[in-house]
Q: What sequence folds into this?
């Protein structure tokens, strides 16, 4: 019933959108493994990971500029051919659904351990999936713009909370060593990229940008800002915790816990941090679920997203409840986040290269 | 109703006061006759085209037949008066049909009856010359401002029912319709729901024409367009659409007109009824149409390129497109000093957040996460709750329920004692509940603050919807603590972000942002700096004032600020 054409995401909005989808991972950065592999240089490797995420965002932006108004469902088929492109789109949609379920489960586990100790995990999972289902009922731009609204608060509150840990910062803990071998460095960097997943939702959301020509720049800027924020968080965390970093499950949280706000207004800052993280996680799993719903709707060819969203929500609940324990859920999460290196960077690179190659070869994509 | 005479005809007659020659008069009369027939034919064809029967029964030349038809149509309507008389005292028979209640009886007696019975001399008229007679009457005899001929029974009856006086003359097909409406209306008073400390004091009333006048006197230019339509099969409610040509987005104007014309309902008792038909998402609890009782508010909306809809019988005008910013803004924000207005907006925004979140946050923190509360405050809170038999959630829920009952009761209690009873009830009940050890003092304070904060919301519709949302946040917080509190807020935010009003995003200004200033909705700029209209509403003319108007010109010419 709209009298005017729905306006897409502007370049600035796209930047904030990218920040919001990456914020959840950045806020609860898991540093122990990276520290074990790279020691004091872990924070430098996080900066390198941020750079790769930035390139991934730019590559998906290039695809959006090349195929304006299209999601990966259509342009993957145009680039790779119908069967392969279709399979790739299915894989991406399935990935988004599984990532939703795992994000929800991990969120439920953290909430269960930090906020609601007596509430059964399945209740929290159900509530979280219900909220993502509700978000997926809204227009896709509404989900994106909710993220845009929340992104500045997430970035500044998250960074602000991390910056409060500076009172315990020791510069000696972060002096670069740069003596590691290439193998562990690359491994740690891949872990770093996996720590900030979410960029792959751009395959579905980029179809709704107002100026596709500026999409690559905007997405890269958002990813770069978030990459820098991640590097700063890692720097401060390692600077505060030093060699004991690998002993903590969520080192940033523990670094923040050690800090106190002046005046004693909020005695335990971690509650505020957790609230910020819940908001960031909400933006992530809602965006992932909306991307999954959008992908399946387009793949199946159903005009109404509502028809797809409810069965997918049920599947997401079941998937989220499959891991039998928190440890098992972490194992699943590790697989999914590592897959995001493929989906967020390598896949985008492959699609861009093939598209260029086919265009250079005179093949119409 | 067909108009009797065009402007060019009037002009021609004005240029020849002695009247046209006899042959021209006859041609003129015949032309009128033909035009009346064509009008009737076109109406019939239009009805047939739409697949319906003939719209109406044509009024014939027989007075008694016509009166019988009118009597049948108005059977058991005891307020319909039929007054028989003769034109000029001894001329052809005629009848005046009108309601006893709505018409201006003085106007009927002085301008119609006196004229027709004593001043007009009319021989036996030739059948079908109603338009010619009407034209002659309008030009030189009848002093009623609006005056027309009607050829159909249904139209004549509808005219009678709306307060117009209908005259039937024996030997003439059709009827003469005189605009004698004098609908009962209260005087223009200060709006009750939008009180302000600085600004005009007049408010809309239930009469749509009065309301149009209140806006028109503020914008006496032809670019202010007023389109009138009638909605409701039985109520035939007069609805006026006002917009500023050259500023309002024509697509939005067309869309609003289309949505209004699509309403096919029995009655339209109020603007709130129509509002639900034209909203983008009627199932949403958030109002997507702004209402106002203030003509100055309507004027500002029109100047922004928005569309104002007025409904007869309602003192509230509807304004579209509406954004959340409009609902949180008071017209007096633009009358006060910008710094003070900004300060007031900050207070109002804070109050809005408090109204929604205070009870829920209180429950989440005290019931689930006391570790987030500083120890000294926590000790005070817990010591006040030592003998309270209920958990905090039940305490707050009971208090909120009591507040809702008091609020509803105070509205229903007649006259001036309503607010007094409300305040006394709240004070006495709260004090008694605390003294009896049923409620903790802080729970009473939190609910009282949330209730007061709710009253700080400018828009009455938004303020009302905050109450059920407050309950939703409370229940979510009571069940899932901080997680429920945060998630309920996020769900509301997602919902609101997905809303549109006449195609414009509900959060326009924030997302999508128009400028850096629009991201700070509490900021009120000085009038001389508000140079542009809000782009997202698609105004045809973006710039609303000259770049060097007022103080801006002073700065430009002096190169700096004026010295104190």
A:
């Amino acid at each position: 019933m709209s009298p005017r054409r729905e306006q897409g995401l502007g370049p600035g909005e796209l930047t904030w959108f990218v920040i919001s989808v990456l914020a959840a991972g950045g806020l609860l950065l898991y540093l122990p493994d990276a520290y074990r592999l790279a020691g004091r240089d872990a924070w430098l490797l996080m900066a390198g990971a941020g750079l790769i995420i930035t390139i991934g965002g730019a590559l998906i932006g290039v695809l959006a500029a090349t195929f304006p108004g299209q999601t990966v469902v259509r342009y993957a088929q145009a680039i790779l051919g119908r069967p392969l492109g279709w399979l790739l789109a299915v894989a991406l949609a399935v990935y988004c659904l599984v990532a939703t379920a795992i994000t929800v489960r991990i969120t439920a586990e953290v909430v269960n351990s930090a906020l609601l100790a007596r509430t059964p995990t399945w209740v929290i999972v159900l509530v979280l999936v219900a909220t993502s289902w509700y978000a997926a009922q809204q227009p896709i731009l509404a989900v994106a713009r909710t993220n845009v609204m929340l992104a500045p608060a997430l970035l500044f509150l998250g960074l602000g909370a991390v910056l409060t840990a500076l009172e315990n910062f020791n510069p000696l803990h972060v002096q670069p060593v740069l003596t590691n071998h290439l193998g562990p460095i690359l491994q740690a960097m891949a872990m770093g990229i996996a720590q900030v997943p979410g960029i792959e939702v751009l395959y579905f959301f980029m179809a709704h940008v107002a100026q596709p020509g500026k999409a690559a720049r905007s997405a890269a800027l958002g990813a770069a800002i978030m990459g820098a924020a991640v590097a700063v968080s890692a720097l401060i965390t390692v600077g505060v915790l030093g060699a004991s970093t690998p002993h903590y499950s969520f080192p940033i949280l523990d670094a923040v816990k050690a800090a106190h706000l002046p005046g004693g207004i909020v005695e335990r800052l971690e509650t505020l941090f957790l609230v910020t993280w819940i908001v960031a996680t909400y933006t992530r799993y809602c965006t992932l679920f909306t991307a999954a719903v959008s992908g399946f709707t387009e793949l199946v060819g159903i005009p109404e997203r509502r028809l797809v969203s409810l069965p997918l929500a049920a599947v997401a609940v079941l998937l989220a409840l499959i891991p039998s324990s928190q440890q098992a859920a972490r194992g699943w999460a590790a697989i999914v986040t590592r897959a995001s290196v493929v989906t967020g960077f390598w896949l985008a690179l492959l699609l861009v290269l093939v598209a260029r190659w086919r265009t250079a070869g005179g093949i119409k994509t | 109703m067909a108009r009797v005479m065009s402007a060019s005809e009037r002009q021609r007659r004005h240029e020849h006061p002695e009247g046209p020659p006899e042959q021209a008069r006859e041609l003129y009369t015949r032309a009128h006759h033909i035009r009346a027939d064509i009008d009737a034919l076109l109406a019939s064809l239009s009805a047939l085209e739409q697949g319906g029967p003939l719209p109406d029964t044509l009024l014939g030349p027989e007075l008694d037949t016509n009166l019988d038809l009118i009597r049948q149509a108005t059977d058991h309507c005891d307020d319909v008066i039929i007054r028989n008389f003769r034109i000029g005292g001894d001329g052809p028979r005629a009848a005046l049909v009108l309601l006893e209640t709505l018409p201006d009886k003085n106007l009927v007696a002085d301008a119609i009856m006196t004229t027709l019975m004593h001043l007009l001399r009319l021989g036996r008229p030739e059948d079908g010359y109603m338009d010619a007679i009407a034209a002659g009457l309008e030009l030189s005899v009848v002093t009623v401002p609006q005056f027309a001929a009607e050829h159909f029974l249904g139209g004549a009856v509808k005219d009678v029912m709306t307060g117009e006086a209908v005259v039937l003359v024996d030997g003439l097909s059709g009827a003469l319709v005189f605009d004698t409406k004098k609908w009962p209306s209260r005087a223009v008073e200060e709006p009750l729901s939008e009180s302000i400390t600085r600004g005009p004091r007049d408010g809309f009333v239930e009469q749509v024409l009065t309301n149009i006048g209140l806006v028109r006197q503020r914008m006496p230019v032809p670019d202010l367009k007023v389109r009138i339509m009638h909605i409701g099969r039985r109520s035939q409610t007069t609805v006026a659409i006002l917009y500023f040509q050259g500023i309002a987005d024509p697509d939005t104007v067309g869309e609003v007109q289309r949505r209004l014309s699509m309403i096919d309902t029995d009655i339209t008792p109020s603007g709130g009824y129509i509002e639900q038909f034209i909203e983008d998402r009627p199932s949403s609890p958030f109002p997507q149409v702004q209402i106002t009782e203030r003509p100055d508010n309507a004027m500002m909306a029109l100047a922004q390129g928005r569309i104002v809809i007025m409904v007869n019988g309602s003192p509230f005008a509807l304004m579209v497109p509406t954004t959340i910013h409009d609902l949180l803004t008071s017209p007096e924000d633009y009358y006060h000093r910008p710094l003070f207005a900004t300060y007031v907006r900050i207070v109002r925004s804070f109050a809005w957040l408090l109204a929604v979140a205070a009870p829920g946050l209180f429950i989440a923190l005290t019931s689930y996460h006391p570790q987030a509360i500083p120890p000294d405050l926590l000790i005070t809170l817990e010591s006040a709750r030592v003998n309270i038999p209920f958990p905090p959630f039940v305490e707050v829920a009971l208090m909120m329920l009591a507040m809702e009952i008091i609020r509803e009761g105070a509205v229903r209690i007649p006259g001036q004692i309503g607010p007094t009873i409300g305040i006394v009830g709240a004070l006495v009940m709260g004090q008694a509940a605390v003294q009896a050890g049923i409620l903790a003092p802080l729970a009473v304070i939190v609910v009282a603050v949330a209730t007061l904060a709710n009253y700080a919301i400018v828009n009455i519709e938004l303020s009302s919807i905050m109450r059920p949302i407050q309950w939703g946040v409370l229940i979510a917080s009571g069940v899932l603590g901080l997680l429920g509190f945060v998630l309920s807020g996020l769900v509301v935010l997602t919902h609101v972000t997905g809303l549109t009003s006449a195609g414009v995003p509900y959060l326009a200004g924030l997302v999508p942002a128009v400028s850096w200033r629009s991201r700070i909705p509490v900021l009120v700029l000085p009038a001389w700096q508000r140079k542009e209209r809000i782009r997202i509403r698609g105004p045809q003319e973006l710039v609303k004032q000259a770049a060097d108007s007022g103080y801006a010109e002073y700065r430009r010419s002096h190169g700096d600020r004026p010295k104190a």
Observations:
- The longest strand of chain B covers residues 224-231.
- Confidence is low (pLDDT under 50) at residues 1-6, 14-19 of chain B.
- The interface with chain A takes residues 249, 251-252, 254-255, 259, 280, 368-369, 371-376, 480-484, 486-487, 490-491, 493-495, 497-498, 500, 502-503, 505, 507, 510-513, 538 of chain B (CB under 8 Å).
